[in-house]
Amino acid sequence: MSAEDILNEIKQYVIKNSPGNALITDVQFEGPEVVIYAKNPEIFSNSFVKELARIFRKRIAIRPDPSVLMEPEIAKDKILKIVPEDAEITNCIFDANTGEVIIESKKPGLVIGKDGSTLEEIKKAIKWAPKPVRTPPISSETIKAIRATMYRERTDVKEILRRIGRRIHRDVKLREDCWIRMSFLGGAREVGRTCNYLQTPESRILIDCGINVAIDGDKAFPHFDAPEFSIEEIDAVVITHAHLDHCGFVPGLFRYGYDGPVYCSKPTRDLMTLLQKDYLDIAEKEGKVMPYSSKDIKKCVKHTIPIDYGVTTDIAPAIKLTMHNAGHILGSAIAHCHIGDGLYNVAYTGDIKFEASRLLEPAVCQFPRLETIIIESTYGGYDDVLPDRAETEKEFLNVVAETIKRKGKVIIPVFGIGRAQELMLVLEEGYNQGIFNAPVYLDGMIWEATAIHTAYPEYLSKNIRNRIFHEGDNPFLSEVFRKVKNTNNRRNIIDSNEPCIILTTSGMLSGGPSVEYFKSLAEDEKNAIVFVGYQAEGTLGRKIQRGWKEIPIMNRNGKSKAVKVNLSVHTLEGFSGHSDRKQLIKYLRKLKPMPERILTVHGEASKCVDLASTAYKLFKKETRAPMNLDAIRMK
Amino acid sequence: MSAEDILNEIKQYVIKNSPGNALITDVQFEGPEVVIYAKNPEIFSNSFVKELARIFRKRIAIRPDPSVLMEPEIAKDKILKIVPEDAEITNCIFDANTGEVIIESKKPGLVIGKDGSTLEEIKKAIKWAPKPVRTPPISSETIKAIRATMYRERTDVKEILRRIGRRIHRDVKLREDCWIRMSFLGGAREVGRTCNYLQTPESRILIDCGINVAIDGDKAFPHFDAPEFSIEEIDAVVITHAHLDHCGFVPGLFRYGYDGPVYCSKPTRDLMTLLQKDYLDIAEKEGKVMPYSSKDIKKCVKHTIPIDYGVTTDIAPAIKLTMHNAGHILGSAIAHCHIGDGLYNVAYTGDIKFEASRLLEPAVCQFPRLETIIIESTYGGYDDVLPDRAETEKEFLNVVAETIKRKGKVIIPVFGIGRAQELMLVLEEGYNQGIFNAPVYLDGMIWEATAIHTAYPEYLSKNIRNRIFHEGDNPFLSEVFRKVKNTNNRRNIIDSNEPCIILTTSGMLSGGPSVEYFKSLAEDEKNAIVFVGYQAEGTLGRKIQRGWKEIPIMNRNGKSKAVKVNLSVHTLEGFSGHSDRKQLIKYLRKLKPMPERILTVHGEASKCVDLASTAYKLFKKETRAPMNLDAIRMK
Ligand SMILES: [Zn+2]
Ligand SMILES: [Zn+2]
Ligand SMILES: [Zn+2]
Ligand SMILES: [Zn+2]
Ligand SMILES: [Zn+2]
Question: Which ipTM score applies to this complex?
């Protein structure tokens, strides 16, 4: 049945089974959803929409016909008039594509009103569907820019969605002798440039499309020279999380002609955009040739279709995608693909943390069905057992407390997303408990990344959510945190005698403010530097970690200057966002159902092989550590 | 360097280093060879040509400029005048593409003359290069037809060769991060539709391209729906041997747009053409839709570049092919590919017999280098040990002798190529030793296949070659063999009381004369039927083998008639052209050098898996039984 036929059938059904005064004006595929436009959309009950979804096995959305929507400017005035001033509305964001208006306010309860009465009133008055949310406590430039793009280019976005919708629901005859296979275009037996290419006779899906930021040349990008790869044939791109080794090349796909959807969680969309822009900025400064420009990042944003954890979405003929929490960074997901009506299920973990962290819940390990799991192996080697988490926190706070006590400064070089926020939560608690008394400065990308975290409290751990929603106590807003606003501000922090903690990018001192802090603070033995993440060979971070006593560093004027290293150097391995070997094995053990095949990726060759071999011994299932350019038949 | 540049360089070198009176007229790529045309080609010494090949690392051929070649008709008269009549010249075959004339005679020694003096005289007189050969004792319609095609379409063939030559020597920049992989498009964990697809960044090679004649529909053909397969990109097709499960689809490639070379041995070219035509004839009679027509078979012949065992040939940028005897059927080969200057070597056995048979030498097991072996697994299962060969022959001759003694007839249904000729050699010896005294009738395709065998004595076992060349004693010409010329002839054989042996196709009684013989001879208990090959489920052969006492057989008029089975039924498994389990393991053990990876294919799933698992236990190398549509990275 063609897309047109399906739409007609749904339209006929809805017209026949809904009250006549709903006044249906259009039925369209928009991305993976079927959208029914009506002049009186409020007439449809939730149960009717559910029934519709059940019958047609599609995601259904009902939206007001654009003609009935009040002009945004006038609508905003109307909202401000209806809602009591005490609600402190800070922003109304009109989404022309969904017919929704997000109403940000300090007290969203007052926007809802008793039993939703205020909402009802707003809806009747302006026809836009009001979505009350709490005003994000820190405003994010990234989110603002994305929203602005989506609004400004709403006509284009709608057209993109409709084109994608028709492609997803295109008429294909499913073959009897269906086959399913996965090619590994990058990230197999290595870390960096992760790119998995799922193929069936009818569809091609790219799951993650990263770059290796640590190297130059062709090997930094996935194997697009694989003979089966054809950019014109890709139905969908799925992104598990925002780290560049998983999403760094996505704008490049658009540069080279891709024009389809990108599926990921909303936080991933925002963080990914932030990181891609940052990557571009740095590369430009270094004069590197980049595979894309900021224009392509914008194109990527416009083609992104955010999906929530647990919602099953058609992404290609006979392929359904469900994203599940991966516990690794904000919005990180395990991608579960259900292929060919119940035929085959494959889950790819992306990067996972199978342990509750302060920031996030542990990775999901239960699926409705599962035949193949593709699991990361960063710490899959025989010796990769990480120190206990609680111990590590204690040790960390000890170093901080001692340094502060002797009036020193603590430099903590971190990657902006994930570890930074996790450490903020540890520091916030330590400060509240009186373990130290000094400000924590946030420099580099950390502030903006934190802003994005505060915009998606529903993605954070239960504990943090509880504090934010029920106790009105947002740890990220603690007085202990201070934003470093500019170079002057940074200079003052360095020069003052005040003991303090500095969380700053980049995590390996390969550039960014962390190098500035180190240069100025290294010679004073009162100070300390704490490494909480991996330091790659050849980086400044690695040299310091190894105990070099004097390090030549290039000055702004291009002259090399020797910096004496007198500050105390600490390395703490227990804060990783990745599962260690024990957790990876525990994850496989807890998987429900147990899959028939286990593939290990995303780790040095020996670690992928170790994990595969252990998994084979433990579970007696088919296990393999594929190589890049291997294509594995799954069914 | 472009193809043009290479040619120019060679031309300059030759002009500079050869006597001026050679009169070079042209230098061209023709297929994998560099051909130097000269008005006086005889001036070049063999050592000069070898030196040239060494320097430029190309196969070099020196040929007379077409302008100096005498008209074939006149040249033939000249040859007949020069060579003494006693030589009994039967045919002169002028090959316009090579400037050679094959002189077939009963006494080739007289064509050569003392110290080659007669040859020299001929050469001087006609300028064609004379190649004296013994007149094949049985003339082959297939070979005649192929020669006629090649002569008639010589202009077209030359153009094809030049196009292929330029493609092989095209200008490609070999990448530093070279990768090599093999996709299995058919014949993995199954028998039938064998198709291996070798890929490097620069090249695509198809090694074998078979069909499964036992089934209908898409599953009879290789997985051309594999995403990496692209018919336009194929550089070369390599065929290991003439069985349809290895070459049955090749004309189909030309039907669907392939226009490149097919590399195989000369006997394989001829036998393959015979079998493809036969397959087409049968399919047409059965009203099947075929993926090609006889026009495509002719196209395939014109694109075939025969290569001898042991000769290394450039078949694509950075891919060199060497064929080695596989011991399976006449002309069968192991394909050894040497990829990227010394970088990687993979050998694919095709079907192998690792035991001397009467007809052929055992498979070659030594290679200059070897990293991966892809080995057949037809009898790779734990129980697949075949009876001893000498025992089997004895048993076979016993059955024959006893049946003849009781004045019965022996039906031996065989596949036309390979087993038939092997049994002929056994029967010829038995007859000579007086074990039985009765004629052996050859029906169906066997006679023609035997004719092709006699045309290529150099491909037969040392023993047979000795008999033919040194003792003038060709076993295929024994008086015991009689050709069944037509239906009348067949009727007479059936009706006469004379005891006899009938070797006849098809081997599984799935059609052809074997069914006729069986219907008429089954009810007489004096007769016998001997199965020497595999009988597939559902075939008439299988039913007889299983001991059915009454079998309904369709008559020509479409009515079913019950045939009583009274003749004695025998099955002999020891004549297989495949290595049994012991021989396969012995082959791996004897391999030189031992490869680092062993892949098992061409067998039921359990047999491929059994063999892989045994090989792993024995050799501790990476072993796998890939699936169809798996792509395995080799380097
Ligand atoms: Zn990650
Ligand atoms: Zn990663
Ligand atoms: Zn677009
Ligand atoms: Zn064969
Ligand atoms: Zn075969």
Answer: 0.87
